[in-house]
Amino acid sequence: xxxxxxxxxxxxxxxxxxxxxxxxxxxxxxxxxxxxxxxxxxxxxxxxxxxxxxxxxxxxxxxxxxxxxxxxxxxxxxxxxxxxxxxxxxxxxxxxxxxxxxxxxxxxxxxxxxxxxxxxxxxxxxxxxxxxxxxxxxxxxxxxxxxxxxxxxxxxxxxxxxxxxxxxxxxxxxxxxxxxxxxxxxxxxxxxxxxxxxxxxxxxxxxxxxxxxxxxxxxxxxxxxxxxxxxxxxxxxxxxxxxxxxxxxxxx
Amino acid sequence: xxxxxxxxxxxxxxxxxxxxxxxxxxxxxxxxxxxxxxxxxxxxxxxxxxxxxxxxxxxxxxxxxxxxxxxxxxxxxxxxxxxxxxxxxxxxxxxxxxxxxxxxxxxxxxxxxxxxxxxxxxxxxxxxxxxxxxxxxxxxxxxxxxxxxxxxxxxxxxxxxxxxxxxxxxxxxxxxxxxxxxxxxxxxxxxxxxxxxxxxxxxxxxxxxxxxxxxxxxxxxxxxxxxxxxxxxxxxxxxxxxxxxxxxxxxxxxxxxxxxxxxxxxxxxxxxxxxxxxxxxxxxxxxxxxxxxxxxxx
Lengths: 252, 298
Known about the structure:
The complex is a heterodimer of chains A (252) and B (298). With 252 residues, chain A is of the alpha/beta class. Helix content of chain A is 36%, strand content 25%.
């Protein structure tokens, strides 16, 4: 497997004058899940969005500091953002499948990036759906609209879609918070399974979820990184009193 | 108790008002059809009009209306789509965008007779296109563009932004996202806009008097050379449309059956608008299903 070194270095994100993310240096180890936790408005989603340059879309947003992926500074002018985003998949809170068939949802990305043969596309569709634990449920209805799926299935389809371009990093922004408990636990199992191949960064408001699936946890508060450590340590013996209060639900 | 009563009265009023509108529409269409349908037959639809004798038809006018529609849509749809997409996806909020929007809105509120005279001065005379289908199509574009731009812009804006983000995260370019992800979702609204624009083409008379003209040369329907003056598909020949024809025979028709011809032509016009509406929705539905794999238009 190709080594993926993925980290931020003194990263700050500004919206106009407002500094939403303040000077954060974080390392995301390979084949592991890093959970970003913290109260609403603490900058964790902004931080996540800056990792694949989604903030480019917001004209007010400015970045200071660096984000390194495999020795490449992603905000360097020479970086091709199209190629960059293929390396980094992203899944949001609300399932957002394309208004296309289940098959097309998965095949669309690879097709655009140059996979032309039908057989190869079929393989990508099948393997992506298998990895997202959705294949058995949809293999007989690939031509149907993705919108005919249930919310939980749609979310797994979105994960499969993200996997279709073979990313090495997966960014998840509260991927299970809009789902029912059964779908939610399926997505959690999936994340644990996927980390064998990818680095995963997940924003979550659900402390149990962070504890169950992540290897590392970073606690954000008002745009600063308060604490970052192995999940077990954060949840059993945090250094910072505020972290302790937040994870035990007394604050935030 | 009082709140419930108010609610009941409001419901009653709303139902009565909607029924009233439906009744007016049905009555109007019914009146036009009842008066005109008896006059419609194949020779009426295909033969040329007569100036002073009875028994004239509306063949060339019918063809002109349809051809003018095609010409206008060929100009309006690309321009409208382009400008609408620009406004929705590229334009940054600011002075220029605000100005464009203001111009577009002002354009849509111009009286058609004024736009017609403007067309006469600029397109017909200064540019030298003469009384022609092409001049008419340009003038109709002036009317339809604001509608098309606004509808396209709104259609694209109403696509959830998560769709765009999903495309970006897959490493798609902006244009690919617009053309393959957003456009299919926006399509049903764009079809509606096109139908509205088409209604305007069929119905407009005032602006066409001065631009497409009030006469049609003798057409030879076997001549398909678009540059020949007798060819029906020559866009640079004068062309009286159905709506203009109705106006003309009603105001200065000399034929003894002028009133019946006007009634028949009106019925044809109504049916034409209806048919085009159904056709556009059907076509939009087919495209939408093909692009989105869904069962019906959203």
